[in-house]
Amino acid sequence: ISATMDTESTYSGYSHYSGHSKKAHRQGRDRHKSPRSKDGSRSEKSVTIQTPPAEPLLGNDASRAEEGQDDNWGETTTAITGTSEHSISQEDIARISKDLEDSVGLDCKRYLGLTVAAVLGLLVFLTPIAFILLPQILWRDDLEPCGTVCEGLFISVAFKLLILLIGTWALFFRQPKADLPRVFVFRALLLVLIFLFVFSYWLFYGVRILDSKDTNYQGIVQYAVSLVDALLFIHYLAIVLLELRQLQPMFTVKVVRSTDGESRYYSLGHLSIQRAALVVLENYYRDFTVYNPALLTASKSRAAKHMAGLKVYNVDGPGNNASGQSRAMIAAAARRRDSSHNELYYEEADHERRVRKRRARLVVAVEEAFTHIKRLQAEEQQKAPGEMMDPREAAQAIFPSMARALQKYLRTTRQQQYHSMESILQHLSFCITNNMTPKAFLERYLNPGPTLQYDRDRWFSKQWTLVSEEAVTSGLQDGIVFVLKCLDFSLVVNVKKIPFIKLSEEFIDPKSHKFVLRLQSETSV
């Protein structure tokens, strides 16, 4: 049975603050050089501890050669990788190809919708003005004089158009938050309604006013006022359909992340599936903790360790069938199944002990580092101008004293890939600038926060795929399940309708609150 050793990858962001010297690394590399140490592709500052390869089921020359190494070689062996300015992974290739395929279609659809909406909005605002100006341009001499009532209608049209312009800007002219796979049904219906409405007004205006050259100018202005009033009512209808209808909660959705099972509950109103998916994603980046695939490797490594610990020897010669080996492995795994829960218990207990220990060291190191920072008052700044530092310089001065403890804690909790040295220095400088306590500085690292707290390049997924059995433009219904997929994981959304609640009233007469004290003969009262 071969021993499986757990090794920890060294956090590259703090390599020049670690206490190991280059000489020790060089000696460790020469004594215990890993056979796979040349496969790395990180920068020259990166120091990676390579894990030993899993032994095959049948012994060979390579496995026998490795038996001569000591049991602690994995803790001291280091591999200095070559310099690489540009690196790319299979996930990056898949993401780039997906973005190239979808970018052209999404951009065309976005700009086409904006163009149609802008042209239609311009037509809506210019139509009442054209209704008033065309008679003045074409048959000015034949028009009846405009009286006081007619001139008052000019002011009414001007202010109503101003109100309509402000309302349209507040409701429709917003920065788009996402590209949906289908059109928004209510928005498309409103655009069609406005087009038909303006077209019918132009048709009536051309037949009854332009052809006959109507001389009643006050009636023409009144006709333009009626158009503006109708447009204001359509704007009110748009507010009801686009904003107010979805405010009342009607459904409860459960969102589960497929990898670690983290879940949240949200209340939604009458929304389509695609808009409900957009609301779920907005809440996901705010409420869910950042996705950390390193936390999911514990169970996989444990299973691999159990399988790697089983070695089958072929005592009957190479001519035997491999089925006997597989049966032997299955039987051995079944015998070890009863003791696996004990291993899991002790592994988790040891991990929690290490986390508490390194957390305590980190808290003490940060508190000691913050004691060296003192904010100078106005009169003190003039006394010692040579000793003053800005927040960035102060952060760089106290960071080395806490770097090692922070590095070990982040590696133990597997958060090192989300915190670069530059981001930590920026956060430390921010805390010093705002006179924050060490506890406020450590809050980001001791308690994993929401996804938005971290660097955008480390968690943001540009492309989400909506998978649903129903049409994405249909409304939410009880029992609907849809999935939001990205490159690394997926969100499973289950929709449940809020049940109808019936409340009854029961009246209690205030005079009924009367009581009698019953005394027994044995009491001392």
UniProtKB/TrEMBL annotation:
Residues 36-45 have a biased composition (Basic and acidic residues). Residues 1-10, 74-86 have a biased composition (Polar residues). InterPro entries: VANGL. Residues 1-86 are annotated as: Disordered. Signal peptide: none annotated. Keywords: Cell membrane, Membrane, Transmembrane, Transmembrane helix. The chain crosses the membrane at residues 111-133, 153-172, 184-204, 224-244. It comes from the Eukaryota. Residues 19-35 have a biased composition (Basic residues). One of its GO terms (cellular component) is plasma membrane. It is a multi-pass membrane protein. It is found in: Cell membrane. PANTHER family: VANG-LIKE PROTEIN. Belongs to the Vang family. This is VANG1 protein. It comes from Brachypodius melanocephalos (black-headed bulbul). The gene is Vangl1.
